[in-house]
Amino acid sequence: MATMKDVAREAGVSLGTVSRVINHATGIKPATLEKVKQAIEKLNYVPDQYARGLKLQHSYTVALVLPSIWNPFNAEFAYHVEHELSKHDYKMLVCDYDDDPQRELAYIQMVKENKIDAIIAITYGDLEKYINSELPFISIDRYYKESVSYVASENYKGGRMAAEELLKHGAKHPAYIGSYNRFPNDTMKRFDGFKDVLEEEGLPLWAIHELEPVADFKPLLMDLLDKHPQIDAFFCNTDTLLYDVNEWLHERGLRVPEDIQLIGYDGMRLDNSHRIPISTIAQPLEQMAKEAVKLALAKIADPNMPARAVYLPVTYLEGTTTKKISQKNVKALDKKTES
What we know:
This protein is of the alpha/beta class. The protein has 3 domains: about 45 residues, Orthogonal Bundle (434 Repressor (Amino-terminal Domain)); about 130 residues, Rossmann fold (3-Layer(aba) Sandwich), CATH 3.40.50.2300; about 150 residues, Rossmann fold. The protein is built from 12 helices and 12 strands. The strands form 2 sheets. A 6-stranded parallel sheet has the order 2-1-3-4-5-11, with helices on both faces. The chain has a 6-stranded mixed sheet with strand order 7-6-8-9-10-12, with helices on both faces. Strand 6, helix 8 and strand 7 form a beta-alpha-beta unit. The longest helix is centred in the C-terminal third of the chain and has 17 residues.
């Protein structure tokens, strides 16, 4: 097996120069860089990442902490995070904590013990006392009292967009269904955006807005429909919930979208080429992953980096759970918005 000394000898450069090339140092002459790369390729040299990590006190590993990998949203996000980390010669360690706070804490401890370099996390547990501003911890959506960087989509705008789209599609009595966490996070703004549009339009707010964990949304949905049978649309605060609501409405004998229209939130995909064909407010998952990795690597390089908040735009995607849009409705709503 070739060593770094072999590469240096083959390229006709010093051992230090080979080390600088492997560690992506700046200021290397293009000709020297090319000679070293050719020597590495010729000798099939594979850098010893473990030894490199011991020397530089880095593991070159970032943990992605998720509530569940079963959720298509989380799985797709993980795909993009891993792809982005690989561009920087980092590996990803996935932690599916399955609502187990001890598993969340274990990964935070691994960072403190230098076993991993950083954490990118979608968390809902009681972690406040374990998080500090020096910890290389990047949050998705959730706020922390300590100064922690986070990435989120424009949730408030997305909630407004969902309400506006339902009205454009002819809904007269849209309602909301979703849950919220006891720890503040940006996803709560989806409800706020939806509520504000209805208030501006002079419409009543009918909503199922429950504190997590929710044992079963189905009886709550049925009770709301019993009380307000005129409801003709729902904004579901996740795509996963939309699928459940769609099934429960079908059991009740209601058709989607003919009787009740549905818009979700997330923009989940089946794979790179196919998205799930529902009407939804899509988050830019690939860009969110890139920004999260960018923040994590910056925090690793500078532990004193000030906290940053990155908000990314959402997009409405038309699917099979809404009716064909009426230009009359579009013009009427646009006119109200302008005034």
